[in-house]
From TrEMBL:
Organism, as annotated: Amycolatopsis rubida
Keyword annotations from UniProtKB, A to Z: FAD, Flavoprotein, Oxidoreductase
Name of the protein this chain belongs to: FAD-dependent oxidoreductase
Cofactor(s), names only, from the UniProt record: FAD
InterPro entries documented for this protein: FAD/NAD-bd_sf, FAD/NAD-binding_dom, NADH-Q_oxidoreductase
PANTHER family recorded: 64 KDA MITOCHONDRIAL NADH DEHYDROGENASE (EUROFUNG), APOPTOSIS-INDUCING FACTOR 1
Amino acid sequence: MTTTVLGAGYAGVMAANRLAGRGEEVVLVTPNAWFVERIRLHRVATGLRENARLDLQTVLNPAVEVVQDTATEIGDDKIQLAAGENLPYDTLVYAVGSGTSDRNGACRIVSEEETERLRTALAEAPDAPVTIVGAGLTGVELAGALREAGRAVKLVSTAPDRRAIQAHLRFLARQGVEIELGRRVDPAGIDGLVVDTTGFTVPSLAADSGLPVDDLGRLLVDEQLTVPGHPNILGAGDAVHSSFRAACATALPMGAHVADVITARREGRAGKPFRMGYVLQCTDLGSGRGRVQFLHPDDTERAIAIDGRAGGLVKETICRMTVRWLSQERDRAGRYSWPAGA
């Protein structure tokens, strides 16, 4: 029996490692020969880091067969690849992540390609001010990195509803970022260099293949992360409709869980519902500073946070741990675990 995993992000690599370490035949389909630390793309965009790539083999179980290609259509038991070949599968893990979009013409940092586009635009206009639309974690981290790189930055957003975001904005204001809150704006209506961080899109692969999706094109799954009506297709990560926020902290447990469900079914057991709880939310605010917000399992904020250089140190430690968790799962299946939900 072969499991094919689409996508070599946090969810896809975790699922592939967990399954391969248990003796499952695993095929990983990815267009690139490297793993992208997407949580570092804001620093790549601003030139503070050369790239966010790791050799895929440093985080992937060597027993996993890598097919360097892109899926264009998913059938009941095979995948159509861009190169023209059909790839059969017994079980499929859909973990294609977030996609790119030309919406409103603004720059973004959702993917490597979009990050490079922004990096080029910044290099071509070194003195141009930058307007960031959105005060979520992506917008805040990008603003901090831009200020660290010496750019003039304006951040525009609706009023934040989380204490952590309010604290981020106060810090950025002290660093010289112009903050404008309380209004929605169309990035297309802003002059100059604009970065839209208000959301992301997902690849249309699931919709194009006739699989059930939500209004945003995200694959619909049940509580076991299985596609309704397609028991041999499971989903994990940003490209899946979920009540949990899209984040590395969500993708890793989802990837591990789909592997556990597949293993259980192979052994004649019922898969368990996906449950997880949050612990921390870490933010890079630039210049070695950050904020670590402690969370309740349901993702609401606790009244505890670590700020400043200590927060920056913890943030960097967590970033390194994400890669270590993948590597540890590569070396011993089942080693990765996550907090249970409330």
